[in-house]
Every structure is written in C-alpha cells, then in structure tokens.
Amino acid sequence: MDGKKADGFTLSFELEKETKNTYKYGERSAPGQPPRIGSLYVQKWALGAGAAPRQLVVTVAAGGEGA
Question: Which of 17, 33, 40, 50 could form a disulfide linkage to 24, CB 3.0–4.6 angstroms apart?
C-alpha cells in the first residue's frame, strides 16, 4: 500500500520483531523504491493487550504552521 496525496502519504508496515517492551515493524515499500521511513518502533502499551497486529498502516501528513 503506497497512497500518494499532496498533503501526505500512506505506508504499510509488517511486524518484524518483538522485544520485552517494543514491537519493530518494517516498511513494505514499492518494488524498486527506497523506504521512506524504514523501521517503525511501537511501544507495546500503545497497542493494548493481546497479540500484536501483523501489519500497521500509517498515514503521514504535514501539519502545523509550516504545512
């Protein structure tokens, strides 16, 4: 998934590793394209109890005064 918009973009991440307090997700970029973010680390408490999602979808959009 790689949606492009003038005001941001959407990326897909897949679970790569689990540590004591953190999940590590790796970006799934389009073939032939370098990753825009690379690795994404999420604290376990942020996703709640239970099993970690195998995939995350993240939308990045500019905000604030300079946007």
Answer: 17
